[in-house]
Design goal:
Strand content: 15-25%
Helix content: 25-40%
CATH architecture of the domain at 37-110: 3-Layer(aba) Sandwich
Number of strands: 5
CATH superfamily of the domain at 37-110: Response regulator
Strand order of the largest sheet: 2-1-3-4-5
Oligomer: single chain
CATH class of the domain at 37-110: Alpha Beta
CATH topology of the domain at 37-110: Rossmann fold
Order of helices and strands: EHEHEHEE
Structural class: alpha/beta
Length: about 110
């Protein structure tokens, strides 16, 4: 039975989306995949998600831009930002984000 908990995976790396979809499918979660920032914004506008896994470095719009869009339009939507790059380790304030708004997951931990 699928849970009524919708998750958006916004990442352009197939290995990451495959890993997350296997875990979510095994636990009967509903999920949608966006392969770039523009697609993520469109899906967020069209649907009501309960959680977003958001890559920082994506084509079209980067994850920081998508994160700012989410906080402006759906401020209560939880977001887990992910990166496999050392550039993703730039402290949130240097990206214009408040430290308390950001949950981090480094992809090398998968």
């Amino acid at each position: 039975m699928e849970k009524e908990f919708k998750i958006l995976i916004a990442d352009d790396e197939e290995v990451v989306t495959n890993f997350l979809t296997r875990v979510l499918r095994k636990n009967d979660y509903q999920f949608t995949i966006a392969k770039n920032g523009e697609e993520a914004v469109k899906k967020i506008e069209e649907d009501n998600f309960n959680l977003v896994f958001l890559d920082i470095w994506m084509p079209e719009l980067n994850g920081v831009e998508v994160f700012k869009f989410i906080k402006k339009t759906k401020p209560l939507l939880p977001v887990v930002m992910m990166s496999s790059s050392n550039q993703g380790d730039i402290p949130p304030p240097q990206r214009g984000l408040r430290e308390e708004e950001v949950n981090w997951f480094h992809k090398s931990e998968t």
